[in-house]
Write a structure and sequence with these properties.
The chain has 8 helices and 5 strands. It is α+β, with helices and mostly antiparallel strands. The radius of gyration is 18 Å and the shape is elongated. The termini are far apart. Mean pLDDT is 89; it is low at 206-225. The structure holds FE2/S2 (inorganic) cluster (FES). FE2/S2 (inorganic) cluster is lined by residues 81, 83-86, 120-124, 127, 129.
Length: 225
Amino acid sequence: MTWPADTLARANDIIARYPKKRSAVMPLLYMAMKEDGRLTDDGMRQVAELTGLTPAQVQSVASFYVMYKTEAQGKYLVSVCSSISCFLLGADDVLHAVEQAAGVPAGEADDEIGVEHAECIGACGGAPACLVNFELVEGLTPEKAKEMIDWLRNAKPDVINADELQTLFGGRRSFDWAIKDENGAVGPYPAFPPFGTAAHNTPPLEPGRLPSGSARSVPLEGGAS
Ligand code: FES
């Protein structure tokens, strides 16, 4: 298998940023996921060819990290943190609400939604927290989690953006000073513009203003501060 020319050009740009091309293995694995919708043997062979690693070495990296998925995760991967801070503040109830609303048990996926529990996602101050396509939403409740799943099923957004998730469904945040998320994810992998896994030119979101295509079009009360 050979990737399309634009993907190969992007991969070579990324490889050129590192002193040794093998160091680009992780970003290239995300690109492989985007190409095939999941990590395939062919995709890993392509990464091996580009980085000079053996396919076995690439597979050993891919199998070590949980974010590299060899099974399709649907269009939206919902990862509910179940580590200690989130657990103490109701993560089990949030996960249960997500599973019930999606009709998908943790660890499984249908064509549209995958559900999984995740270890600490670095948002303990905004617990309970979860990721949708690796975009963060904090201060979830079971009710808001259900609304979020219903929104994914009904609105079917093409881009998942953390600021939008937080405005629609979030509560207390850990990082009000964080950089605005201006890109957003286009699939169940992290959104990095240089890797081609992010939406381009998503307009910056102002507080209380939702992008066109959102399920709601009026400013919300009680959203992120
Ligand atoms: S314990 Fe859930 S984000 Fe850290």
